[in-house]
Design goal:
The protein has a single domain, classed as Aldolase class I (TIM Barrel). It has 11 helices and 9 strands. Helix 2 runs antiparallel to helix 11. The longest helix is centred in the middle third of the chain and has 18 residues. It is globular. The mean pLDDT is 94.
Length: 288
Protein backbone atom coordinates (compact mmCIF):
# COMPACT_ATOMS: atom_id res chain seq x y z
CA UNK A 1 0.00 0.00 0.00
CA UNK A 2 1.25 3.47 -0.88
CA UNK A 3 2.90 5.49 1.89
CA UNK A 4 1.65 8.80 0.52
CA UNK A 5 -1.67 10.56 0.57
CA UNK A 6 -3.47 11.98 -2.46
CA UNK A 7 -4.73 15.37 -1.33
CA UNK A 8 -7.81 16.62 -3.19
CA UNK A 9 -8.65 20.28 -2.61
CA UNK A 10 -12.27 21.21 -3.42
CA UNK A 11 -12.75 24.97 -3.82
CA UNK A 12 -15.54 24.23 -6.30
CA UNK A 13 -17.46 22.45 -3.55
CA UNK A 14 -16.81 25.36 -1.20
CA UNK A 15 -17.87 28.07 -3.63
CA UNK A 16 -20.77 26.54 -5.52
CA UNK A 17 -23.34 27.28 -2.82
CA UNK A 18 -22.47 30.98 -2.49
CA UNK A 19 -25.36 33.16 -3.61
CA UNK A 20 -23.10 36.11 -4.46
CA UNK A 21 -21.17 35.54 -7.67
CA UNK A 22 -17.42 35.41 -7.06
CA UNK A 23 -15.67 37.39 -9.81
CA UNK A 24 -13.84 35.24 -12.31
CA UNK A 25 -10.56 37.04 -11.66
CA UNK A 26 -10.79 36.29 -7.94
CA UNK A 27 -11.52 32.62 -8.58
CA UNK A 28 -8.46 32.42 -10.82
CA UNK A 29 -6.19 33.98 -8.17
CA UNK A 30 -7.41 31.58 -5.50
CA UNK A 31 -7.17 28.49 -7.67
CA UNK A 32 -3.70 29.49 -8.86
CA UNK A 33 -2.51 29.75 -5.28
CA UNK A 34 -3.72 26.20 -4.65
CA UNK A 35 -1.96 25.01 -7.79
CA UNK A 36 1.21 26.78 -6.65
CA UNK A 37 0.84 24.91 -3.33
CA UNK A 38 1.09 21.71 -5.40
CA UNK A 39 -2.03 19.99 -4.09
CA UNK A 40 -2.36 16.65 -5.83
CA UNK A 41 -5.82 17.17 -7.31
CA UNK A 42 -7.82 20.39 -7.61
CA UNK A 43 -11.61 20.14 -7.91
CA UNK A 44 -11.74 23.52 -9.61
CA UNK A 45 -15.09 23.81 -11.39
CA UNK A 46 -18.18 22.25 -12.91
CA UNK A 47 -19.41 21.72 -16.44
CA UNK A 48 -23.07 21.79 -15.50
CA UNK A 49 -26.06 23.95 -16.38
CA UNK A 50 -25.55 27.56 -15.24
CA UNK A 51 -29.18 27.51 -14.17
CA UNK A 52 -28.40 24.64 -11.80
CA UNK A 53 -25.19 26.12 -10.36
CA UNK A 54 -24.82 29.78 -11.40
CA UNK A 55 -21.56 30.15 -9.46
CA UNK A 56 -19.79 27.78 -11.86
CA UNK A 57 -20.91 29.39 -15.10
CA UNK A 58 -17.41 30.74 -15.74
CA UNK A 59 -15.56 27.41 -15.37
CA UNK A 60 -14.34 27.41 -18.98
CA UNK A 61 -13.02 30.98 -18.70
CA UNK A 62 -11.31 30.19 -15.41
CA UNK A 63 -9.63 27.13 -16.90
CA UNK A 64 -8.11 29.17 -19.73
CA UNK A 65 -6.18 31.31 -17.24
CA UNK A 66 -4.78 28.63 -14.92
CA UNK A 67 -1.06 27.88 -15.18
CA UNK A 68 0.00 24.31 -14.49
CA UNK A 69 3.54 24.32 -15.87
CA UNK A 70 5.29 24.60 -12.48
CA UNK A 71 3.04 22.28 -10.53
CA UNK A 72 2.13 18.62 -10.42
CA UNK A 73 -1.50 19.47 -9.63
CA UNK A 74 -4.08 17.66 -11.75
CA UNK A 75 -7.44 19.24 -12.43
CA UNK A 76 -10.81 17.64 -11.73
CA UNK A 77 -14.12 18.97 -13.05
CA UNK A 78 -17.53 17.87 -11.81
CA UNK A 79 -20.13 16.91 -14.39
CA UNK A 80 -23.70 15.65 -14.06
CA UNK A 81 -24.48 14.28 -17.52
CA UNK A 82 -22.91 13.14 -20.78
CA UNK A 83 -22.95 16.61 -22.34
CA UNK A 84 -21.01 18.02 -19.41
CA UNK A 85 -18.56 15.13 -19.62
CA UNK A 86 -17.96 15.80 -23.30
CA UNK A 87 -17.27 19.46 -22.56
CA UNK A 88 -14.80 18.62 -19.77
CA UNK A 89 -13.05 15.84 -21.66
CA UNK A 90 -12.41 18.18 -24.56
CA UNK A 91 -10.16 20.30 -22.31
CA UNK A 92 -6.60 19.00 -22.41
CA UNK A 93 -5.71 20.44 -18.99
CA UNK A 94 -8.37 18.39 -17.21
CA UNK A 95 -7.24 14.98 -15.95
CA UNK A 96 -10.33 13.86 -14.03
CA UNK A 97 -14.06 14.16 -14.42
CA UNK A 98 -16.13 13.60 -11.31
CA UNK A 99 -19.68 12.26 -11.34
CA UNK A 100 -21.92 12.43 -8.24
CA UNK A 101 -23.63 9.06 -7.97
CA UNK A 102 -25.91 8.74 -4.99
CA UNK A 103 -27.22 5.50 -3.55
CA UNK A 104 -30.16 7.55 -2.27
CA UNK A 105 -32.86 7.79 -4.95
CA UNK A 106 -34.20 11.00 -3.45
CA UNK A 107 -30.83 12.72 -3.39
CA UNK A 108 -29.88 11.57 -6.88
CA UNK A 109 -33.06 13.11 -8.28
CA UNK A 110 -32.43 16.34 -6.38
CA UNK A 111 -28.78 16.51 -7.37
CA UNK A 112 -28.84 15.45 -11.04
CA UNK A 113 -32.55 15.27 -11.94
CA UNK A 114 -32.15 11.58 -12.79
CA UNK A 115 -32.90 8.31 -11.05
CA UNK A 116 -30.19 5.96 -9.83
CA UNK A 117 -30.87 3.66 -12.78
CA UNK A 118 -30.70 6.51 -15.29
CA UNK A 119 -27.53 7.80 -13.67
CA UNK A 120 -25.87 4.40 -13.87
CA UNK A 121 -26.52 4.36 -17.62
CA UNK A 122 -24.90 7.80 -17.84
CA UNK A 123 -21.90 6.50 -15.90
CA UNK A 124 -21.46 3.73 -18.48
CA UNK A 125 -21.34 6.23 -21.34
CA UNK A 126 -19.05 8.65 -19.47
CA UNK A 127 -16.67 5.86 -18.50
CA UNK A 128 -16.45 4.80 -22.14
CA UNK A 129 -15.65 8.39 -23.14
CA UNK A 130 -12.93 8.56 -20.48
CA UNK A 131 -11.36 5.28 -21.55
CA UNK A 132 -11.22 6.47 -25.16
CA UNK A 133 -9.70 9.85 -24.33
CA UNK A 134 -7.25 9.02 -21.55
CA UNK A 135 -9.21 10.79 -18.83
CA UNK A 136 -10.10 9.22 -15.49
CA UNK A 137 -13.61 9.07 -14.10
CA UNK A 138 -14.02 9.65 -10.38
CA UNK A 139 -17.36 8.45 -9.05
CA UNK A 140 -18.48 10.20 -5.88
CA UNK A 141 -20.60 7.60 -4.12
CA UNK A 142 -22.75 10.02 -2.17
CA UNK A 143 -24.86 9.05 0.83
CA UNK A 144 -22.42 6.17 1.23
CA UNK A 145 -22.70 6.35 5.02
CA UNK A 146 -26.44 6.96 5.32
CA UNK A 147 -29.06 9.49 4.25
CA UNK A 148 -31.71 11.68 5.89
CA UNK A 149 -34.52 10.88 3.46
CA UNK A 150 -35.64 7.48 4.67
CA UNK A 151 -34.50 5.74 1.49
CA UNK A 152 -33.29 2.16 1.95
CA UNK A 153 -29.71 2.25 3.18
CA UNK A 154 -27.16 -0.08 4.68
CA UNK A 155 -23.47 -0.65 4.13
CA UNK A 156 -24.17 -3.66 1.92
CA UNK A 157 -26.00 -1.45 -0.59
CA UNK A 158 -22.89 0.70 -0.89
CA UNK A 159 -20.73 -2.38 -1.34
CA UNK A 160 -23.04 -3.71 -4.07
CA UNK A 161 -22.81 -0.48 -6.03
CA UNK A 162 -19.01 -0.48 -5.78
CA UNK A 163 -19.04 -3.98 -7.27
CA UNK A 164 -21.17 -2.80 -10.21
CA UNK A 165 -18.96 0.24 -10.78
CA UNK A 166 -15.88 -1.95 -10.66
CA UNK A 167 -17.33 -4.09 -13.45
CA UNK A 168 -17.34 -0.97 -15.64
CA UNK A 169 -13.60 -0.56 -15.10
CA UNK A 170 -13.94 2.49 -12.86
CA UNK A 171 -10.82 2.78 -10.75
CA UNK A 172 -11.45 5.77 -8.47
CA UNK A 173 -14.42 5.94 -6.10
CA UNK A 174 -14.77 8.53 -3.36
CA UNK A 175 -17.06 7.45 -0.55
CA UNK A 176 -18.97 10.61 0.29
CA UNK A 177 -20.41 11.54 3.66
CA UNK A 178 -22.78 14.01 2.11
CA UNK A 179 -24.51 15.29 5.23
CA UNK A 180 -21.86 14.68 7.88
CA UNK A 181 -23.42 11.62 9.52
CA UNK A 182 -20.61 9.07 9.13
CA UNK A 183 -19.27 7.54 12.33
CA UNK A 184 -15.89 5.84 12.75
CA UNK A 185 -17.58 2.44 12.91
CA UNK A 186 -19.29 2.80 9.52
CA UNK A 187 -16.17 4.36 8.00
CA UNK A 188 -14.03 1.45 9.18
CA UNK A 189 -16.58 -1.11 8.01
CA UNK A 190 -16.81 0.21 4.47
CA UNK A 191 -13.11 0.81 3.83
CA UNK A 192 -12.08 -2.48 5.43
CA UNK A 193 -14.55 -4.32 3.20
CA UNK A 194 -13.42 -2.50 0.04
CA UNK A 195 -9.69 -1.76 0.05
CA UNK A 196 -8.53 -5.42 0.39
CA UNK A 197 -11.17 -6.69 -2.06
CA UNK A 198 -10.33 -4.23 -4.86
CA UNK A 199 -6.57 -3.66 -4.69
CA UNK A 200 -6.56 -2.16 -8.19
CA UNK A 201 -9.02 0.54 -7.16
CA UNK A 202 -8.33 3.88 -5.47
CA UNK A 203 -10.83 4.66 -2.73
CA UNK A 204 -11.20 8.19 -1.46
CA UNK A 205 -12.95 9.84 1.46
CA UNK A 206 -15.07 12.92 0.90
CA UNK A 207 -16.16 13.80 4.41
CA UNK A 208 -18.38 16.56 5.70
CA UNK A 209 -17.86 17.11 9.39
CA UNK A 210 -18.42 19.16 12.49
CA UNK A 211 -15.23 20.78 13.81
CA UNK A 212 -14.83 18.58 16.88
CA UNK A 213 -14.95 15.20 15.09
CA UNK A 214 -12.74 15.71 12.03
CA UNK A 215 -9.82 13.65 13.35
CA UNK A 216 -11.74 10.51 14.22
CA UNK A 217 -13.05 10.34 10.65
CA UNK A 218 -9.59 10.76 9.13
CA UNK A 219 -8.11 8.14 11.46
CA UNK A 220 -10.86 5.61 10.78
CA UNK A 221 -10.45 5.90 7.01
CA UNK A 222 -6.65 5.99 7.07
CA UNK A 223 -6.26 2.99 9.36
CA UNK A 224 -8.49 0.91 7.09
CA UNK A 225 -6.55 1.71 3.94
CA UNK A 226 -7.87 4.99 2.51
CA UNK A 227 -5.13 7.08 0.93
CA UNK A 228 -7.15 9.73 -0.92
CA UNK A 229 -8.77 12.56 1.06
CA UNK A 230 -10.92 15.47 -0.11
CA UNK A 231 -11.00 18.74 1.76
CA UNK A 232 -11.79 22.43 1.44
CA UNK A 233 -9.77 25.11 3.18
CA UNK A 234 -11.29 26.09 6.55
CA UNK A 235 -14.12 23.64 5.93
CA UNK A 236 -15.94 26.10 3.70
CA UNK A 237 -18.96 24.81 1.86
CA UNK A 238 -20.90 21.70 2.70
CA UNK A 239 -24.23 20.25 1.78
CA UNK A 240 -27.30 22.43 2.42
CA UNK A 241 -29.27 19.27 3.21
CA UNK A 242 -27.17 18.88 6.35
CA UNK A 243 -29.27 21.62 7.99
CA UNK A 244 -26.41 22.31 10.39
CA UNK A 245 -24.26 25.37 9.84
CA UNK A 246 -21.38 23.71 11.70
CA UNK A 247 -21.31 20.80 9.24
CA UNK A 248 -18.95 21.80 6.43
CA UNK A 249 -16.35 20.18 4.26
CA UNK A 250 -13.38 18.48 5.87
CA UNK A 251 -10.87 21.32 6.43
CA UNK A 252 -7.89 20.75 4.18
CA UNK A 253 -5.54 22.26 6.73
CA UNK A 254 -6.60 19.52 9.18
CA UNK A 255 -5.74 16.84 6.62
CA UNK A 256 -2.35 18.51 6.14
CA UNK A 257 -1.91 18.85 9.91
CA UNK A 258 -2.46 15.12 10.33
CA UNK A 259 -0.40 13.77 7.44
CA UNK A 260 2.44 16.26 6.95
CA UNK A 261 4.29 15.24 10.16
CA UNK A 262 3.92 11.63 8.98
CA UNK A 263 5.76 12.62 5.77
CA UNK A 264 2.85 11.43 3.65
CA UNK A 265 2.35 14.67 1.71
CA UNK A 266 5.73 15.00 0.00
CA UNK A 267 4.49 17.36 -2.70
CA UNK A 268 2.81 20.04 -0.63
CA UNK A 269 4.54 23.44 -0.61
CA UNK A 270 3.84 24.68 2.89
CA UNK A 271 4.44 28.41 2.38
CA UNK A 272 2.29 28.50 -0.73
CA UNK A 273 -0.41 26.51 1.06
CA UNK A 274 -0.43 29.01 3.95
CA UNK A 275 -0.71 31.81 1.38
CA UNK A 276 -3.77 30.11 -0.12
CA UNK A 277 -5.36 29.79 3.32
CA UNK A 278 -4.82 33.49 3.96
CA UNK A 279 -6.22 34.44 0.55
CA UNK A 280 -9.36 32.34 1.05
CA UNK A 281 -10.74 35.14 3.25
CA UNK A 282 -10.87 37.38 0.16
CA UNK A 283 -13.63 35.11 -1.14
CA UNK A 284 -15.42 33.60 1.82
CA UNK A 285 -15.44 36.65 4.08
CA UNK A 286 -17.01 38.79 1.36
CA UNK A 287 -19.23 36.52 -0.73
CA UNK A 288 -22.09 34.59 0.84
Amino acid sequence: MTDRITLVECPRDAMQGLADFVPTSLKIKYLQKLIDANVDVLDFGSFVSPQAIPQMRDTAQVLEQLRLDHSQTRLLAIIANVRGAEAAIAKEAISYVGFPFSISETFQMRNTNASIGESFEKVKVIQDLCLRTGKRLVVYLSMAFGNPYGDPWNAEIALEWVSLLNELGIRTIALSDTVGIAHPESIRYLFSHLVPVYPEMEFGAHFHTRPEVWEEKIVAAFETGCRRFDGAIKGYGGCPMAKDELTGNMPTEKIVEYFLPRKMLPGIRSEAFLSAIAFSAEIFDHYH
